[in-house]
Automatic annotation (TrEMBL), chains A, B:
Gene3D superfamilies: Tetracycline Repressor, domain 2. It comes from Denitrobaculum tricleocarpae. The keyword Transcription applies. One of its GO terms (molecular function) is DNA-binding transcription factor activity. It comes from the Bacteria. SUPFAM superfamilies: Homeodomain-like, Tetracyclin repressor-like, C-terminal domain. PROSITE patterns: HTH_TETR_2 (PS50977). Residues 10-70 form the HTH tetR-type domain. Residues 33-52 bind DNA. Pfam families: TetR_C_33, TetR_N. Keywords: DNA-binding, Transcription, Transcription regulation. This is TetR/AcrR family transcriptional regulator. PANTHER family: HTH-TYPE TRANSCRIPTIONAL REGULATOR BETI, HTH-TYPE TRANSCRIPTIONAL REGULATOR RUTR.
């Protein structure tokens, strides 16, 4: 390990995020602590709180890497504005996006789960830089919904969020084995039925002026 | 407290379930332990494991009371086969059912959450009596979907499960304040959009032979 004086603040930050992410990956969100991160990188907790604003700020930086990772997996499969999957129709493309989300969650369960297990302190607003990473993921879904929903920004926004929240529900229930309890074998049949009918329903709306 | 010899096995079971449910209600699923239940009812952990099969069996009995409670709230508002809400159209009735689920989860957060936090041991099958309680809840949703979906049992089953899993996702994300992070103000607008389009989509299917 390099001597302490060798690391800039930015380097310490990067090391802490990597160590924290590894902790969560191996032991889940419940296994995370600032103390463990400090030990892993050979610094004191005090140093950690010098380079991060607070405990939430450390987790947000770790979770941001997960959001970036998920975005890069999605973009590599669907292109920034969905063009890499231009050969798929709307319905197939949205199904593939949903499958990609569920696969990512399954393969990176602890890191994905930490996105939802972490709760910001009530008085702490979500930083803009973090909100932008969430926004980038929704932009990708919205690009795929535009041919169906049209250009109305508010409706596009809402449709993307309804679909995500619904698929997230199916995903979370699948990965915690709760769908087998209600007699469902795979998440795939549920997401297919959800997207197929939801899209068909959207197409029945009267044309907007 | 009555003397120990005053209680039958059934009485001990009932006392333990009530005490366990109170524990979960006050301290969440993480605050539950067989030891605390035993202490609360003045018996040893050994006695508890004499009247229950194992740790999972205790939790299942506690969670079953939550399922019964949720069913009785739903039935009191919608009737056993949906007839108490006969004045609502399909779309309104399903929206009201979703709102009822989300309200119940909000008002009984720790008990509702325990339904999903508990994981059965991998070698333990779900007991039939517990599966029937889950089934009764789905029967209520299916009754409301029948006018839209038709009599096909398999499709009715699947449609009910898709809707529940999706609404469950919106509900879980709302109650953990995750929807505000993606710029959504209320769960209501999402469930409305979900049900409206999903139902409209179902109605576009070709008639079955």
């Amino acid at each position: 390990m390099a001597r302490r004086s060798d690391h800039t603040r930015e380097e310490i930050k990067t090391m802490a995020v990597a160590a924290g992410r590894e902790l969560i990956r191996d032991a889940g969100y419940a296994g995370f602590s600032a103390r463990k991160v400090a030990t892993a990188i050979g610094y004191t907790v005090g140093t950690l709180y010098n380079v991060f604003e607070n405990h939430d700020d450390i987790i947000l930086h770790i979770n941001a890497v997960t959001l970036e990772d998920l975005l890069s997996v999605m973009e590599s499969r669907f292109g920034v504005s969905g063009d890499a999957s231009a050969d798929l129709d709307d319905y197939e493309a949205l199904r593939a996006l949903a499958a990609c989300y569920i696969d990512y969650a399954r393969e990176n369960y602890n890191c994905w789960s930490a996105l939802f297990e972490h709760n910001l302190a009530p008085d702490m607003p979500l930083p803009d830089w973090y909100g932008e990473k969430i926004g980038a993921l929704f932009t990708l879904i919205e690009a795929r919904l535009k041919p169906v929903v049209g250009e109305d920004e508010a409706e596009l926004r809402q449709t993307a969020r309804v679909l995500w929240a619904s698929i997230h529900g199916i995903c979370a229930l699948t990965l915690t084995n709760k769908l087998t309890l209600v007699g469902v074998e795979t998440a795939e049949s549920l997401t297919a039925a959800l997207i197929e009918n939801y899209i068909a329903g959207l197409k029945t709306r009267p044309a907007r002026l």
